[in-house]
User: Fold these one by one.
Assistant:
Number 1:
Amino acid sequence: MTGSHPVLTMTGISKSFPGVRALDNVDFRLFPGEVHALMGENGAGKSTLIKVLTGVYGTDQGTVTLADEQVSFTGPMQATAAGVSTVFQEVNLCTNLSVAENIFIGREPRRLGAVRWGEMRRQARALLARLDLDIDVNAQLGSYSLAVQQMVAIARAIDIKARVLVLDEPTSSLDAGEVAQLFRVMRQLRDDGIAILFVTHFLDQVYEIADRITVLRNGQLVGEYLTGELPQLGLVEKMIGKELRVLERLDEQPRRAATDRATGTPLLDVHELGRRSAVAPFSLTIHEGEVVGLAGLLGSGRTEVARLLFGADRADHGDVRVQGSPASLRTPVAAIGHGIGFCSENRRAEGIIAELSVRENIILAMQAARGWLRPIPRRRQDELVERYVRALSIRPADPELPVGNLSGGNQQKVLLARWLITEPRLLILDEPTRGIDIGAKTEIQRLVAQLSDGGMAVLFVSAELEEVLRLSHKIAVLRDREMVAQLTNDQDVDADRIMQSIAAGAGHEGVPS
Amino acid sequence: MTTLSLLTTRTWSRLPRRHVPVLATLVLLLVLYGVGVSQYRAFSNIQVIFNVFIDNGFLLVVAVGMTFVILTGGIDLSVGSVVAMTAMVSAFLLREGLPAALVLVIALLIGPTLGFLMGCVIHFFDIQPFIVTLAGMFFARGMCTFISGSSIPITDGFWTRMSQERIGNPSGNFVSISVLIAFAVVAVAAYTLAYTRLGRNVYAIGGNPQSALLMGLPVGRTRIAVYTISGLCAAIGGILLSFYTLSGAPLIAVGMELDVIAAVVIGGTVLTGGSGYVFGTVLGVLVLGVIQTLITFDGSLNSWWTKIVIGGLLFAFILLQRLIGIRYK
Ligand SMILES: Nc1ncnc2c1ncn2[C@@H]1O[C@H](COP(=O)(O)OP(=O)(O)OP(=O)(O)O)[C@@H](O)[C@H]1O
Ligand SMILES: [Mg+2]
């Protein structure tokens, strides 16, 4: 961050995919000892720039200079060897291996060529302790949540003795505590002179940690700024390229105090539902048109509750009523039959089919609900798809592109559209805005509000408290896999109050069920 | 600060799920053996087990190679033909009068070379392993008949010694040299998979090749290596077979690749890759061998029953893997 010499310079980088110019003559530089935020909307080209840097993609044009030497990596292996360590956007680890192995594979501690397992576990534990993560390093990675996997990916990257550390949306599924921890480590590394490239859609995080900001828009460089000299509003304008009315609208949106929705027979009424080792028995009612938020820290059981209600995991306790009559939600098929939809947090493993087109991906759940023998007429498909592509501003707005070609955030939007289109009676959204840029995030929030006004019930799971507060009528708070409170979201509920009830634990409150 | 509230989704599962298939195979093996012992007095003789190893040593070696390939999520259909080709080449060269040591070296080079080439095609041209190794299978089988249309006997001194040497008590229980070689191969393979980078990369690629690439692992090199290893194991298997039969025949070991795959899968290795052990493969081969022995002991059953039982088992084991959801991606 001194006036010194950049450790990494990318000049005139262009990269096209069939039909898309993902990068157009982009310059980028990175100084030793700085945290540099790369900003832009979904599909702006951030991940592509990173993949060009690390040799996952070749360039069409332009040069990359690392420590005064022109380089052209053939892949992450070479890049890592040259001192560029990367966490890619989607968590890219091997879930079949243990946590320790995922951190060290490829550079395991060895003696005479033999992997030293004990030593590797010890080092893994030490490294995770640095990130304040206390998990069993012997366990298979796949048995942990996405958030933990993300932390493990970060641990892997920071342990490599690198000159340049690249983090593509490392915080998308982390909550405040983990982010703080990560930032502490990032500051340490920065002070050791490591250059850090950081991508995020959370503006607050940018202003907390970044020294310098580069903004991309539609594959083009907008500019490079010092964080101190670019106010938040200015940054957003640079990113979306127009004045920002969307965001204002978001802030003005009144708190949705609507207790009146919680009347009559609840749409879903669960009593003492639970699953050993996943969630302690809890009771919850959701009415038509009601948005129920689930708040809680990482690993508090948010996703587990969502999965139980959808039948993705089987409850071993309690009973369920749908519109007053007893029902069983033992399998997803049963849940779908009762009009419940579930948009999972793990889009890569459980949702997106990369080879199918945007249209096919969006239509999928709806078609499944109708049965495969009654195809949806093409005209109607096009109509529906077109509507949601526009509503969620999916870009590029070409329904026939394979979803795998879309940027991470746009894939997330496709998945969301898939469930919205089925118009379920209860929609469970697990982290629907993860990795989505602020413009689209506002759109999604508006859509959720609009759908619930139209009578759809929504269970909204998010690590972002502000978002939960803004949308929910009722907020259920989870702690240590137990539902510790249910708060009616009225004037005197705020983030502090929720944090308190998370901290206090048993401070039961509000809505009896 | 928030010490992450111990994300123990899995406190209950003390027994890692990935060990379940191997344990299931072990139980199955014990049950089969128990059935044998309770039905036939002679079955309890330890020599019965030794004979299973003697008769299936070559199968075991080939199955070990196949384990590597399947762990990466691939398949190698060429092994049966490579076994036959190796035996054939050895018999032919010995008949031509080449010294045994030289013949051994040549025979042991052919398999891995073919494996290496197939690995390269699979990796560089991104073609399905199924297709490439199918081509390899036809090629190797073709080479057998090209060398000779009929079987060639082996009379070489070294070969006959290897064939007849009994280790142990010559009048009591014994094993052949082939069994020792097979055990050595098993030991080296188990070590490689558990303790070397190559081995660990094999598991990573089987888990998720895309991730493995982005984690900076040498995916291409490892892929090529496993087909080379499988080729080498098939070559060793071919030599062991020629010790056993003292001949090379163009139509020997036809369909053996399928027995090998069955043994690996029954041994608990997941066909889609990323999970399994060499030890499981040993158990898988033993299960096949014990079933065969049982059917021989019975005497009244047609040998096709072996195939039928193996088919049923294979089905059961694939279902088991599915049920315990060993594959979370
Ligand atoms: N493999 C690919 N094939 C075709 N097009 C691609 C491919 N990868 C990316 N693109 C396109 O390149 C553009 C830039 O994508 P990129 O992933 O770099 O966006 P991003 O800035 O990282 O967005 P996000 O915030 O959503 O992650 C997008 O229009 C995307 O559709
Ligand atoms: Mg991206």
Note: The pocket of adenosine-5'-triphosphate (ligand 1) is lined by residues A 17, 20, 22, 40, 42-48, 89, 396, 405-410 (CB under 6 Å).
Number 2:
Amino acid sequence: MAKPLFELKDVYFSYMGKFPALCGVNLTIEEGAKVCVIGANGTGKSTILNMLDGLIFAGSGSMKAFDRNITSGVMSEPGFSRVFRKSVGFVFQNPDAQLFCPSVKEDIMFGPLQLGVQLDKIKKGVDIIANRLKINNLLNRQPHQLSIGEKKKVSIACVMAVEPDVFLLDEPTAGLDPATTRDIIDILLEENMAGKTIVTATHDMHIVGEISDIAHVLGRNKKIIRSAVPDEILLDCEFLKDNNLVHVHRHMHDGRIHAHPHLHTEHH
Amino acid sequence: MKNNRFVERSITGALSFFKDAIFADEEALKKGFLQARDARLKMLMVFVLILAALFSKSIVFIAGIYAFCVILALASSINIIFFLKRTWFFIPLFSLCIALPALFDIFSPGEKFLSFKVFFVPLSITKQGLSSAGIFFARVLTSVSLCVLLSVTTRHYVLLKALRVFRAPQVFVMTLGMCCRYVYLFIEIIQNTYMAIKSRAGGVFGIKNSQGVVAWNIAALWQRSYVMHNRVYEAMLSRGYSGEPKVIEEFDFTYKDWFWLGTAILILGLSLWQNHYLN
Ligand SMILES: Nc1ncnc2c1ncn2[C@@H]1O[C@H](COP(=O)(O)OP(=O)(O)O)[C@@H](O)[C@H]1O
Ligand SMILES: [Mg+2]
């Protein structure tokens, strides 16, 4: 059995003490795993990823990462936080927050610069990443003037530039066209083959099967209510419907309106 | 209702003008004389030329600097109509309003040039008034044109980085850059929210109603900017930021850049010398 990288034990968290976002979450993520956190809107997916990235801290319960108990005190130790930031990369849900430099190129270089990587090495890295994500033509543009999909790709490039061991991705494919989604999934799978841990939060059932070996489902009670292999969850229509992960689909059949649950696993 | 439409159109018009005027960079991407200059030396050159215009007391000399500025614009293949429109119609008009009172004998006593009565108040334009207002106007026009020239031929972030010549601290430059970006973002948010409201309300809502919407919008905007601020900070932390941002500075200047800076300094020298000589 692989080494656990992150361990959340009975974690509670609420925003400003009054908006509960996590209510007793238990979660273990092992090194090299590909994991999905799925759930309807507002079930706490983003909150979990923020916590895994050491940006917010458990109100009660505990989170362990890299064999340390993560608290705000630990994260302000310069030595540990540097290692942590180098090892964990986070693609935010909102790319406008993630991209804050004046040009795409500088945004990609920001992470490695802060971590003290050498300049010529950074520049080489930028070229390689830009090629892989097919964003060479965007390098001199201003990030805030890109389309959503382009912004998402640039956000991913920014995180890849740091060469982390763990990728945390918050809805990486939301709002992207099928071909771009495909590209991004392929890149994530390649990274996973190379031994990187991939944690994705999504409600896009199309991609769950591919980008995870195990899926954790967050319920309306803001807890993990089920953890299983994706196929098992994807075939359980009742369960998915109860958790707002499929919708009932109406269309015309032989001139009559006909309703059935629409599983987001295949196109039709 | 008609009134409301007018306000609506002027606000949306002003927003998109502002966006185009400040954030467009198509001129900066053209290949031209000023676009090829190093941003730091270009900034110094413009700064020196503005000083020359401010120090000179001869309107002919200032007109010469202005002509030089227009020639530079032409050499940089800037759309000259666009350039003149931006400089002539907007900012100098304000300065004309400021300079206007100085024309009259109440403010500038002296040799009468033209006399007339407005509402039984005798007024005359004096020669001294005319020449000081003229010089003032020429100075403003020239400085504004030079600034506009600098800003349209240089991409914004390069300009910000060039601020480092004046020893602006890194954090300041970076924060300024982010402010620019978020001003842009918020203009977009306002435009989008406005469009969303319009599409929901079908464009028909009374003045009372729309005032409510505006007030609510401003509140929401503050809220959003606060949330955004937090998110951006977290994004920076997440990528290893730890207090002082590290950025790279790359500028490349050639002997040509130094030559043009030299020319500007020469013009400044000439202006100072002429001042001395005229007095
Ligand atoms: N900044 C915030 N302030 C207050 N409540 C928040 C904030 N962010 C999220 N929440 C609340 O926390 C819960 C979980 O949100 P989130 O983790 O963003 O869900 P998801 O990413 O699954 O859509 C939601 O009920 C949401 O209303
Ligand atoms: Mg979310």
Note: The first strand of chain B starts at residue 112 and ends at 118.
Number 3:
Amino acid sequence: MINHYPEIPPRTKPFKRAINKVVLFVLGRALQSLSKADPLIRAETATWPEGFTLAMLVKPKGGSMAVRRMPDLSLKYLGSQFPNDEADVTIYINEVESAFKMFTGQLGSDVAYARHSISAKGDLSYTVSVVRVINVVEAYLFPRLISRGLMKEPPPIPWGRRQSLRLKTYLLGILFGI
Amino acid sequence: MNFPEYYEFSFPVKIISGHTALNKLPVELAQAGLSRPLVITDPGVGKAGLLEVFLNAFAESEITIGAIFDQTPPESSTLVVNKIADLFREKNCDSLIALGGGSVIDTTKGVNILVSHDSNDINQFRGADILTGPLKPFYVVPTTAGTGSEATNTAVIQDLEKGVKMLIVSELLMPKAAVLDTRMTLTLPPKLTAATGMDALTHAMEAYISIQQNPISDVFATQAIMLVGRWLRHVTANPQDKNGRLAMANASTMAGTAFSNSMVGCVHSIGHATGAVAHVPHGVAMSVYLPHGLRLNLPKAAERIGEMLLYLAGPEVYVATPPEERPAKTIAEVERLKQDLYELSGLPRTLQEAGVDKDLFEKIAALGINDGSALMNPVELTLERARQLLDAAWQG
Ligand SMILES: [Fe+2]
């Protein structure tokens, strides 16, 4: 009779968890690379205090990434192990499915917030600025057809810059951290 | 037409509404097994004689007021919150009652976090949806009709030393009950009545068109719009009208419920910034900006703006207006309400009348586009649109 009432530990979704972790890495490296060149992102980071750290984490243990605002307005990728209680702002994505939707271009930041898919710890006064930065990054990483559905309106990036920075981000930024 | 793919709605607050509703509060506490509430209020409440009414309501009850803190400043601060939390522990209180307006209610929410988590550092609780419970039983008796704080999940506490506003969002911050007692708002002067009423209308209208809008918050929003449409002029003209006062108190709570679940939008973004930069009272800023904020959202929310005409102006006007003209008619009705309130109470209609210096526009716009409320506004609030809104609001 003992085994009739077994304990059931949480199941795993290794594929989605793995994809989420890859996209967190891509996002971190893309933020680092794009913040050196894109004027829209730099206009936002100019309003963040120097040394400001932003962490993003999939709850409960689905991966994380963090970036720090440097003196030259760029963002430095701090890897996947940054202790999130030391970040100024930590954005939590509350469960694996929402994270997967956000990271695969099926769910935009503002709608995710509206659906309580994300919560945030720390100083909320930077939230809107952070969302604008993420929108710009998404506009580079995703094809326009997809990124258009993720935000209220696409950020004003000229066509030429979008193509050249997209190429640079994928080839150098994400692969080599430049 | 669309229906939200997913939404959440939370409203755990019991409403106790009546001309002498306060008399029921001791029973509520006793039934919850409570006997020593700490009462938090401000000097104005005492001066208006409302504290007397409040204490009389506890006559012949089993409740001992553990302590009264009656020095809450107009802007809640970490210092005050810490001081009151100490008082709560010292006097062995078991619950909290906020008797006052927005600042008193926010302060009490802050105190509740500290005493429930046995902490003296509100800073570590900053954020959205990260607070853990349970919190102490908490009751609200609002003395204004507009902020809706008795029904919201948000507290703003200022850190005066660092000069920052700390924002905490959590459904755990909502009280167990809100007591809407006519006597508490009967003495509000007409201009303040008009301004706070327009704040309530703005909460309801912005919640109704928000990205986070959902069918249950719509019910609260539309009823609030209807009550404001029917009663705000009347109460501003007849401050002693008891039914009108109670209707507006209900409108305020319902609008608060709506925006606590669906958020507000660009009128609040620019309004908060105008308060911070040019010190325009919140309700006045709401009234000045509301029609312009609706206009800004026409490209994305025309249909829903048009729907609100039914509630604001009534079925006759709604039916007599062709569907394609309803969005503009809703905005025209808001303008007409503003004009009437101006004539009845002198409520400013424009930024010029509110005494805002045009030189401050750039600062207001820059601050406004970073306000959290911009996130759920249907149209992206860009710097350019914020500037246009300010220019439009200058002369009306
Ligand atoms: Fe408001």
Note: Residues 14-34 of chain A form the longest helix (21 residues).
